[in-house]
Amino acid sequence: MPTYIFLYKLTDQGIKNIKEMPQRMEKAIEASEAVGGKVLGVYSVLGEYDLVSIAEFPNDETVLSLALAFGALGNVRSTTLKAFTKEEFAEIVKKLP
User: What CATH class is the domain 3-94?
Assistant: First the structure.
């Protein structure tokens, strides 16, 4: 399955309700698994972003629908990155002219 990296920034609403974040994280993991995803890790981080998660999903459409649903809740804004393994990258480079 393709791998995705999600970078999250808390909104004003999200930081106001920060004590609910652990429960929201668990619900997000459950929602991800319900659509065929597998969450590999969720991290609270220092720096420009507040949270980072790494997950596998069946396709881009599934990721987009989840990202929109999570964003609509109003607690986070996200940036989604599609990740390629070193093996996948090597195969892509082999196809270059």
Answer: alpha beta
The helix (H) or strand (E) run that includes residue 78 is strand 76-83
Q: Provide φ and ψ at 17, rounded to 5°.
A: -110, 35
DSSP state of 41: E
- The domain segmentation of the chain, as residue ranges, is 3-94
Q: How far apart are CA 34 and CA 52, in angstroms?
A: 20
What does DSSP assign to residue 18? G
Tokens of 74: 């109003």
Question: Other CB atoms closer than 10 Å to residue 56's CB: what's the count?
Answer: 16
Residues 66-95 pLDDT 10s: 999 999 999 999 999 999 999 999 999 999
- Do the Cβ atoms of 79 and 6 come closer than 8 Å? yes
